[in-house]
Amino acid sequence: MNTKKSKVFSFNVADGQFKTSSWTGGIIAQCVMVAKTSKGFAVRDTKDKDKTTLFFKKGEWNAFIKGVKAGEFD
């Protein structure tokens, strides 16, 4: 039985590293901010006052982008 706990992937990222999409605003003012670093990608909601952040390794992010381009989330 494997009882080894997996470590949550995260890294330090400053607020100033996040970029907001140019699509922010409009009728539905919902958007995310993304920070690209050497360790991976960090994503948060622009309206998240607590700044809850999701972290993705490069391979995970690339798989997500590939899926978006292929229409897997329509």
In short:
It is built from one helix and four strands.
Please describe what this structure looks like.
- With 74 residues, the protein is an alpha+beta fold.
- It has a domain at 29-74.
- It is 16% helix and 20% strand.
- It has 1 helix and 4 strands, in the order E-E-E-E-H.
- It has one helix spanning 58-69; strands at residues 19-20, 32-36, 41-45, 54-56.
- The chain has a 4-stranded antiparallel sheet with strand order 1-2-3-4.
- Strand 3 (41-45) and strand 4 (54-56) form a beta hairpin.
- The mean pLDDT is 85.
Characteristic terms for this protein:
16% helix, 1 helix, globular, alpha+beta, 74 residues
User: How many strands?
Assistant: 4
Mean model confidence by pLDDT: 85
Distance separating the two termini: 39 Å
The amount of beta strand, in percent, is 15-25%
Strand order of the largest sheet: 1-2-3-4
Largest sheet: 4 strands, antiparallel
